[in-house]
Amino acid sequence: MPATEVKSRRMFAGALLIWGAAILLQTIVLAEQEKVYLLYAFQGAAVYYGLLGILAVLPWKTCKRLAERPHSRWAAIGIHLILGTSILIVWQGIYLGCLYLWTGNLSEIHLETTGLWQALGAVTTYGMLVAGIIAVQTSRRLQIQLQRQAELQILARDAEIRALKAQIRPHFFFNVMNSIYSLIETRPREAQEMVELVANLMRQTLDAADEDLVSLEWELDAVQTYLRMEKIRLGDRLKIRVESDGAPLDSSVPPLFLQPLVENAVKHGIAPVAGPGEVDVLIKADQDQLEFSIRDSGPGFRESAGAEEREGRGLSITLRRLENLYGKRFSVAQRQLEPRGFEVCIRIPLQKLDSSATTAHV
């Protein structure tokens, strides 16, 4: 059930409770003031507030229309004065008419001594009714507005996630195509093998194109495919270690979110160095979170470059995707390893893929 409907029902129940309390209070006052039985007093109070309840339809519609089509302050006050005076005359007139039909004589009501107080009480009651109507309608409009804003935020996040995914795919495949091009003339067999790997990875990516989340098993397979391609390109210069320490393979993760981190590790940690290097991808489950560590044995931060060069466009897109998916429920840490190396550590909520719908639009 929508939250706005639940709140509306609660408000309606609260209004009925206040209405019942008003009838009960009026019953007690009439019984004490007019010295009549409680049953007769209750009938009179029920008619009194029942008439007001029927007539309340007019101020409800008037307040709603004034809110939908704003008028000047004085025009709104004038409309309420005219409507209020008319309703008070009709309300009190019908009520007195009903009393006359019951008693056949209005002298027992002592209008000459209590009429002023009854009129003031009626005006006060009507004023409270209008104030309550305005408060309820304002609250309902605010609830609807907040719900629409939440829906628009979800739609905007969905659109941004899809846009970011669309950005990262060309970014990734453009770099791969450059690698294949560099191998075609000098190492054609390896270029052919890389084309097959690219075809497999492209098929995987197309399968997950419409998914915000995939399984950890899928993501690890995609990472290993990418690293095999880099292994072909770099040969013995690249050593690879991919390990999952107790992390459930059916955990949900964003598709291809590790690839930019691994690509950065190869690009900045292995490629610039003449000798061999190693890239480690380590995943472990820690209570209710998944922790991903991507390490390389390269030089780490260079004084002239700093963290901005290490991050690049691909990583910034990944971080925006994580923010859209998990809000503040993820963390990213980068650190220089000693004596050499660099590590990026990301923690995201641990959740199985079959229940990921509740996480996909945080």
Describe the structure.
The chain has helices at residues 3-34, 38-55, 57-68, 73-103, 111-184, 188-207, 216-234, 259-270, 307-326, and strands spanning 214-215, 238-245, 252-253, 277-286, 289-296, 331-336, 342-349. It starts with a helix and ends in a 13-residue tail after the last strand. The protein has 362 residues and is α+β, with helices and mostly antiparallel strands. It has 9 helices and 7 strands. Strand 6 (331-336) and strand 7 form a beta hairpin. A 5-stranded mixed beta sheet has the order 2-4-5-7-6, covered by helices on one side. The chain has a two-stranded antiparallel sheet with strand order 1-3. Helix 1 (3-34) crosses helix 2 (38-55), helix 5 (111-184) runs antiparallel to helix 6 (188-207) and helix 5 (111-184) packs across helix 9 (307-326). It folds into 2 domains: 3-109, no CATH class; 167-358, Heat Shock Protein 90, CATH 3.30.565.10.
Tell me the layout of helices and strands.
Blueprint: H1 3-34, H2 38-55, H3 57-68, H4 73-103, H5 111-184, H6 188-207, E1 214-215, H7 216-234, E2 238-245, E3 252-253, H8 259-270, E4 277-286, E5 289-296, H9 307-326, E6 331-336, E7 342-349
Parallel strand pairs: 2-4
Antiparallel strand pairs: 1-3, 4-5, 5-7, 6-7
Helix pairs in contact: 1-2, 1-5, 2-4, 3-4, 3-5, 5-6, 5-9, 6-7, 8-9
